[in-house]
Amino acid sequence: MSNRASKASTGAPTTLWDRTRQLASQEILETALRLFTEQGYDETTTAQIAREAGVSQRTPFRYFGAKEDLLGGGQDRFGQVLMDTISEQPADAGAWEALRAGVAAVLALHDSRERALKRFRLLHHTASLRAGWLEKRLRFQENLLPLIETRMDTAAGNEDAKARAVIATAFACLDAASMAWLANDGKGEIMDLYDDCMAAVRG
Questions:
Q1: HSE value, Cβ hemisphere, 13 Å, CA-based, for 124
Q2: Which of 42, 54, 140, 157 is at 20 to 30 A from 28, Cα to Cα?
Q3: pTM above 0.70, yes or no
Q4: Domains 3-70 and 73-202 share a fold
């Protein structure tokens, strides 16, 4: 295997341009998260982020698109990972099991505990971010509906209503787990809290 192929297979940047873009995007993300935390999400402009990161005002938009994506990754990406992970689960995996795998995959997108803690704080304590997340969450739930319906017990009927209830419960447990994790200042694991929440609901 060639050196270039080896790098490609591991997902590592293969060119100086790739490495430069990666470093620039990382600097922009770190700057944005710092400013959001210090002075508030709504009070921080993309122009200020660009200035502090030492890049042009257009650069953050080229790398990330919407301002909310500067929190890291973008919520649309989370939704896609959630759907892809659930789709990839074995056919005999139940709805609850598939959703748990999806939640775990989404949480794994966070690059560090410290940054995840800052992002969750901003999400839960910024009204505009919270409203945007709730709106997108409803869309995610609709997109997940056919994937979860196929994993429901079809003998009893009412698959649509039951699938909606299961999906909504999974998201509610993720909310409860993340808020408890924030209250504990990031101690422990969100997935453990999620499992506790699910056990309480299903028990």
A1: 16
A2: 140
A3: yes
A4: yes
What is the topology classification, in CATH, of domain 3-70?
Tetracycline Repressor; domain 2 (1.10.357)
At 56 the three-state DSSP class reads: coil
* Residue 109 and residue 116 in contact, taking contact as beta carbons nearer than 8 Å: no
Domain positions in the chain: 3-70, 73-202
CATH of domain 73-202: 1.10.357.10
The residue with tokens 């698959």 is 159
- Cα–Cα distance for residue pair 179/14, rounded to 1 Å: 39
DSSP 123-186: HHH-HHHHHHHHHHHHHHHHHHHHHHHTTS-TTS--HHHHHHHHHHHHHHHHHHHHHHHHHTTT
Q: Chunked in runs of 10, what are the mean pLDDT values of the chain (203 residues)? A: 41 62 80 91 92 88 80 74 96 95 93 87 88 87 94 76 94 95 94 97 88
DSSP 69: G
Give the type of residue at 80: Q
CA–CA dist 20, 35 (Å, integer): 23
Length of the chain: 203
